Amino acid sequence: MSVAFTQRVVVPAHVMVRQVEGESVLLDLESERYFGLDEVGTRMWTRLTESDSIQAAYEALLNEYEVEGEQLRGHLVELIEKLVENGLVEVAGE
After folding, report:
1. What is the CA 5 to chain-centroid distance, rounded?
2. What pLDDT was estimated at residue 2?
3. How far is Cα of residue 20 from the mean position of the Cα atoms in its chain?
């Protein structure tokens, strides 16, 4: 899967998200499978789902964390690909 940072991440209606003590639980109501995100994963999720583009989320996270840009880019792509693969997000056009 190719992820363009000009695209944005959208949460489908069949996905329910709950945050508990800084971590998140994602529930796919169609498959009845749930997934957990740790504190950093939750922050990435929040930025990705609230930003106008993946690039905007990337820039915000780059300002929040002491991390190399390429490393953060790789982690974001990996997270997005796993979320898409499991039906927890969709990547929308530019």
Report:
1. 12
2. 81
3. 17
Pick from 16, 18, 23, 59: nearest CA to 40: 23
Give the whole-angstrom CA distance, residue 76 versus residue 92. Answer: 16
Domain boundaries, the chain: 10-87
Structure confidence at residue 94 (pLDDT):
64
Specify the fold of 10-87. Arc Repressor Mutant, subunit A (1.10.10)
Nearest to 62 by CA among 80, 44, 81: 44
Q: What is the pLDDT of residues 71-81, one digit of tens each?
A: 999 999 999 99
Question: Is the distance from CB of 35 to CB of 86 less than 8 angstroms?
Answer: yes
- Residue 65 is predicted with a pLDDT of 95
User: What is the number of residues in the chain?
Assistant: 94
pLDDT (0 to 100) of residue 93: 82
Low-confidence ranges of the chain (pLDDT < 70): 94
Instruction: Judge contact between 44 and 60, C-beta under 8 A.
Output: no
